[in-house]
Amino acid sequence: MLLNRRKALAGAGGLMTALATGEAWAADAPRVRRAASSLSSADDDILAFAEGVKIMKRRSDALSWEAQNRLHAQRAEHGNWRFLPWHRLQVAHMERIIAQVTGHARFAMPYWDWQVDRFLPPWVLDPSSPLYERERDPAAETLDFQKARFAQSRDVARVSDDNFDAFCGRERAAGRVEAYGHNIIHMLVGGYMSSTRTAALDPVFWLHHCNVDRVWATWHQKNGDPVYPRPWKDVSMSGFTGPNGRQTGRWTASRITSTRGLGYGYDALYAPLVFALPPGALGGPPVSTSEVSLRVEADSADGSVRLALPPELLRQLREAPGRVTVEGEGVVAYERSENLTGRGIATSILADKGRVDLGVSPTFVHFGGGEGEAHEGHVGHADYAHVFTFDSAVVQLARLTTGPLAIVSTAQDLRPEEGRPPARAVSLEARLTVTEYAV
């Protein structure tokens, strides 16, 4: 095979640029990203953020506000395990751009923790501020986000006990941190934020993604580098513009698992809402462990997919003499189309006289591409899929009932007034680990 020397040199140059950029950023004294709720409109970082938005909206080059939105609209990673590293890179580049155009060299992007702060920061609601965006759902201005629709989902990322697949996602399926906590805010803020094509035009986008990144930083601190699989570490991302207006080359996920690699940190990490009990806290060692893998192709025209739990599994859950636990995860997939936008994918375990709700994930469908842009990932081509998880609530449901149990996912229409046909489900799979104890 002949080597194209020009392409090889270009690729090497892009890699060296990214390495040099990363090394320079890591060498800086870390910027400290702070909670939006702790900052007034007169804080230096808020003043710089507002001034940066104003300046960038006036520009038409690679440092313009529209250019950053276009990058997200065309190349952002959603619905796969690239989601977290790609958005970490975009926020870090935006942070440096704002520092450059405003002269506030130590600018650090604030984060908005909607579960703690509950309401949007007042300085994004002031119509006289560049941080205000009229293209939002009017209800968002007074909404208590912590109590809002879907916000109480059991699958809002629980950083204490999620494994890599559940938290970060799979190669072609969104993890819980994206599918639930992330998507819920895009849906609730509405307006520009409700579409991948326009989301980055709203300053709230950057505050929100800064907080998503903080959740990842917390999970990483608990789990460390060994938890990341090698194929994920090797994923490559590019297209980001540095503060000098030039692209920073290719980045691999392995280089940015720690925020220190990009020269920033957080004033406080994310406080998990659910804490995992240590092994053995509820009894002695296990006497047996078994795994069950299930999959079904959708055959319904009503936008749902149903996966029956096998009778032998139900007998085990109901008849085991001692304590039984279940843990694991599943993936539900839908056909990616415009008809899937504006929906909530609700997943439950149904019995004859009861149910366990596993969460509702509002769809945030990215179609990718546009204007001839190349794309490293699968966005815009693969099915739309996300991970959900199981716990021992399925055991309780099995023991309180006598009939069959099934996992059911349905794409609820959040815009029913439009009279759209149902979204098309593709498949549902589950992988469960069942552990029995003597007592």
Descriptive labels:
439 residues; alpha+beta; di-copper center containing domain from catechol oxidase; Jelly Rolls; 4-stranded antiparallel beta sheet; globular
Q: Can you describe what's shown?
A:
By secondary structure, the chain is α+β, with helices and mostly antiparallel strands. It is 31% helix and 20% strand. It has 11 helices and 14 strands. The radius of gyration is 23 Å and the shape is globular.
Spans where pLDDT lies below 50 across 5 or more residues: 1-12, 273-281, 370-375
* Gyration radius, in Å: 23 Å
Largest sheet: 4 strands, antiparallel
Give me the CATH architecture of the largest domain, please. Orthogonal Bundle
Helix/strand layout:
Blueprint: H1 5-27, E1 31-33, H2 44-58, H3 65-75, H4 83-102, H5 114-117, H6 164-168, E2 169-170, E3 173-174, H7 176-189, H8 203-223, H9 230-233, E4 236-237, E5 251-252, E6 264-266, E7 286-297, E8 304-308, H10 311-319, E9 324-334, E10 343-351, E11 354-362, E12 384-390, H11 393-400, E13 406-413, E14 425-437
Parallel strand pairs: 1-6
Antiparallel strand pairs: 2-3, 4-5, 7-14, 8-13, 9-12, 9-14, 10-11, 10-13
Helix pairs in contact: 2-4, 4-8, 7-8
Short description:
With 439 residues, the protein is an alpha+beta fold. 31% of the residues lie in helices and 20% in strands.
